[in-house]
Specification:
Helix content is 25%, strand content 25%. By secondary structure, it is of the alpha+beta class. Strands 1-2-5-3-4 form a five-stranded mixed beta barrel. Strands 12-11-10-9-13 form a five-stranded antiparallel β-sheet, with no helix packed on it.
């Protein structure tokens, strides 16, 4: 039996909602739901047939609907959001006084305000025992939860739009982060500059994985960079490959660069005595210093601790 409604909890995890058959729920309404953290407020979604079909194989754990938010609840929720902002800055200030290297992302209360969770990122493990003592003094009769998350998790929580103009993949459909490295960018002919290949999280774009197989398939039909070719203008060496246009840029014997379609060139056996700088071939631009290790450092970038 499929649930007609679902809620999306933090980090893009959808869960079916247990509701009574006579419940008058509408898409987009705010509802109070019981989770492992306590009672939390979420926006309800109507489950379409495609999601229902996916859930035939694996249905996430259903969550229990407490009630639809009434006017009193909505006023309390608005007050809660203000308290969360105040709690965020209090926690951050206390951590700074303790000289703790922690970047706080968000503070979240349960609706009954019996528990508050502080999400933070940090380059290494933090001993926050003294901070926890400070927080228990500041927030009396409230359970304190300090959660270390990764930079990719942070971006999925804060949300935003990417260079494509769409919402970040990590806060829409992406549920699992795959390993990404600069080879994906190089093989696709993308310049290795942070502004072009990294997202708001400071790590390599997740979307570098999406079309990689298509580029590999296209590469099988085109001569690789550094190979000798015969063109209508004479012998040359492939300087750059344009996979989307199915064309190559060739450096000719006179030093000129020219683009040719695949049908216009033929591969040449043997070495062609033309120098090209393969290492700097569209891989580095703007004289920008690139720390490849930093871009590829995915250790703890996603912790699953949300």
């Amino acid at each position: 039996m499929f649930m007609k409604f679902a809620v999306r909890v933090i980090k893009n995890q959808f869960h079916p909602l247990k509701v009574s058959p006579d419940a008058n729920i509408k898409h987009g309404q705010l509802v109070l739901v019981r989770t492992e953290k306590g009672e939390e407020v979420f926006s309800v979604f109507v489950v379409n047939s495609q999601i229902q079909k996916t859930w035939e194989k694996h249905q996430p754990e259903p969550l229990t609907l407490v009630r639809i938010m009434n006017e009193d609840d909505l006023r309390a929720y608005e007050e809660q959001k203000k308290l969360e902002v105040e709690a965020f800055y209090k926690c951050r200030d206390l951590a700074m006084k303790r000289n703790l290297v922690m970047k706080f992302t968000q503070a979240r209360y349960t609706f009954d305000r019996k528990k508050i969770t502080f999400y933070y990122t940090a380059p290494e493990r933090v001993d926050f025992r003294e901070l926890l003592k400070d927080l228990t003094q500041e927030f009396k009769r409230v359970r304190i939860d300090l959660r270390h998350i990764g930079v990719r998790d942070e971006t999925s929580i804060l949300q935003g739009k990417g260079v494509c103009g769409q919402n970040y993949c990590c806060c829409t459909f992406l549920k699992k982060f795959e390993q990404v490295n600069t080879k994906l960018a190089k093989d696709q002919g993308i310049p290795i500059t942070p502004c072009k290949i990294t997202g708001a999280c400071g790590r390599l774009l997740c979307c570098l994985n999406y079309e990689y197989k298509n580029y590999l398939d296209a590469a099988k039909t085109l001569p690789p960079v550094g190979s000798g070719v015969m063109t209508p203008d004479g012998v040359g060496k492939v300087f750059m490959v344009n996979f989307l246009k199915k064309a190559v840029n060739v450096k000719l014997e006179d030093g000129k660069l020219k683009e040719y379609q695949k049908s216009e060139i033929e591969m040449i056996d043997g070495e062609v005595n033309i120098d090209i700088d393969i290492d700097n071939n569209m891989n580095y631009q703007d004289d920008e210093v690139v720390d490849i290790k930093m871009l590829e450092d995915d250790r703890n970038s996603s912790t699953g601790n949300i």
